[in-house]
Amino acid sequence: MMKSLTLKSLTILSLLSSTLVANVTDDNVMKYEEQRIKSAIVRAKGTINSIDVVLKKDLQNDGWYGYVFNLDINIQGKKIVQKDTLFAKGNLIAPDLINTKTKRSFKDVMYPKLTKKYFSKEHLIAGNPNAKHTLVIFSDPLCPICIDEVPFTMKNIMKHPSNIALYYYHMPLDMHPTARTLSKASMIAKEQGIKDIDYKVYSKDFSNFYDAYREKDNQKALNFFNKTFNTKITMAQINSKKYNDKIDYDLKMAEDAFVNGTPTVFFDGEIDRRRMKYEAFLKQNNGEVK
Fold it and tell me: Which among 3, 46, 71, 275 could bridge 75 via Cys, Cβ 3.0 to 4.6 Å?
């Protein structure tokens, strides 16, 4: 499930749709980005605070490189921070690039490779930490797609713990007002010794208990959690600095990985937009996937 963008953000992105022929260097790409952003926001009397390259990636495709920029701009007094992408090769710059074999945009691979910090013991929920392969999931316990896919993934890896190490990051979205409470309750329950609590939360599907998009009563959500798992977690624990900091840490890790929706999966540190590479690996190694 994708984070929502403001209308103004969408308007700005829609304006960034031109190409340039030039002798392309990193400096030229940056100058072009600055020029087109300035042209796009001038109508709205906007100003640029900063534009930074946060990723340059060799696409391994006939000399093309992808660039991801972090834009920090003001539109009519409102600060907007978002990412933008350009592609460059030789004397060409383009706002998008389509892979004719896969029929998909190369924007789908414009993510950083995860560093070792993502493979921490605290975030390991299944598998062998010394396994050759890793799977990292960013997920929201009330996201419908997550509820459908994430427990399936967790179960398969729990069945074959020697093949893959599974790391889980909480990414409760603002569109689900009680998701943070459920995520923090899961953290607390895990510390209290409840095994496989993240898998169990998704398997119970809390969206069956109340409307995940409209319900704002976090005590109600916590009551369902306590009743379901026979815990006695309090709102004082949920609202404590310790667990607020833990959630903020997970969200910052998601931001650093350019994750903007759930579920998002990285296999062996690389983005897996289709979320299926781990299945292919298990099948190749006689692992059961069903």
Answer: 46
pLDDT digits (tens, 9 = 90+) for 107-119: 999 999 999 999 9
Rounded to whole angstroms, how far apart are CA atoms 144 and 196?
Answer: 20
Measured between alpha carbons, how far is 254 from 183 in angstroms, rounded to an integer?
Answer: 15
Asked, as a colleague might, if the bond just before 151 is cis with ω within 30 of 0, I would say no
DSSP 8-state code for residue 116: G
Contacts 24+ apart (CB under 8 A), 221-226: 221/178, 221/181, 221/182, 222/181, 222/185, 225/181, 225/182, 225/185, 225/189, 225/201, 226/185
Strand partners, 78: 75
- DSSP, residue by residue, 46-65: -EEEEEEEEEEEE-SSTT-E
Q: Tell me: the pLDDT tens digits for 256-279?
A: 999 999 999 999 999 998 888 988
**Count of residues for the chain?**
290
Query: Helix-strand-coil percent breakdown of the chain, rounded to 5?
Result: 40, 25, 35
Nearest to 132 by CA among 168, 159, 158, 164: 164
Which residues contact residue 277 at a Cβ distance below 8 angstroms, ignoring those fewer than 6 apart? 267, 268
Strands of the sheet containing 20-21, edge to edge, are 20-21, 92-94, 78-89, 65-75, 47-58
Residues 6 or more apart in contact with residue 103 via CB below 8 angstroms = none
C-alpha span between 119 and 135 (Å, rounded): 9
CA dist., res. 261 & res. 131, Å (int): 27
pLDDT of residue 1: 66
Phi, psi of 51 (to 5 degrees): -135, 120
